[in-house]
Amino acid sequence: MPWDRNQMAARAAKELRDGYYVNLGIGIPTLVANNIPAGMEVTLQSENGMLGIGPFPYDDEVDPDLINAGKQTISELPSSSYFDSAASFAMIRGGHIDLTVLGAMEVSEGGDIANWMIPGKMVKGMGGAMDLVAGVKKIIVVMEHVSKNGDPKFIPQCTLPLTGKNVVDMIVTDLCVFQRPDHDSPFRLVELAPEVTEEEVAAKTTARYEGLATPVRV
Predict the structure, then answer these.
(1) Residues known to be catalytic
(2) pLDDT, tens only, 5-15
(3) Domain locations in the chain?
(4) DSSP labels for the chain?
(5) Does the N terminus or the C terminus of the chain have fewer Cβ atoms within 10 A?
(6) What is the CATH number of domain 5-217?
(7) The pTM is what?
């Protein structure tokens, strides 16, 4: 059975470590905030100028002045701090963010990512995505394995405008997890969602990757 969106975010959250500074992209990645392991101290950063983001608020707790970069309402913590975009991007470009979790339309077998534009569609701009993939220490992509029309999203080469080249370290989809130890190595299939087979992953993936004889099931 494929993972749902929250289960995908929960799998990505397993990559968090105590003391990490983390940036979460728009969409499924925002759900990582509600899946931080108990007892772990992780500081979430938003490129619109906030450090220390709490979980999503309940309806009666919403403050319209508190939003993340995706314009979603968020909550603050006693340790939260606020600053301008220049300071926010200095954190990102200066290599002070340990991990970012991003969505994507396409990821290539070489670790390229396209996640900001589909030609012919109106977009507001790239936002902080290019800075994040260039300045953050570890890049995790969380995305559906195939597009709405069934096309693979983990492919030999990206066809959409790139956000970054050879930057992705891990891919979490609704079917499985791919990982690589460094940017000179190929991706390897390391986990399968429950009841998903290697054959199903292979049938829905055009990128080259290394398989395992017994991938971990979680």
Answers:
(1) 47
(2) 999 999 999 99
(3) 5-217
(4) ----HHHHHHHHHTT--TT-EEEE-SSGGGGGGGGPPTT---EEEETTTEEEE-PPPPGGG--TT-B-TTS-B--EEEEEEE--HHHHHHHHHTT---EEEE--SEEETTS-EE-S--TTS-----TTHHHHHHH-SEEEEE--SB-TTS-BSEESS--SPPSBSS---EEE-SSEEEE-SSTTS--EEEEE-TT--HHHHHHT--S--B--SS-EE-
(5) N
(6) 3.40.1080.10
(7) 0.92
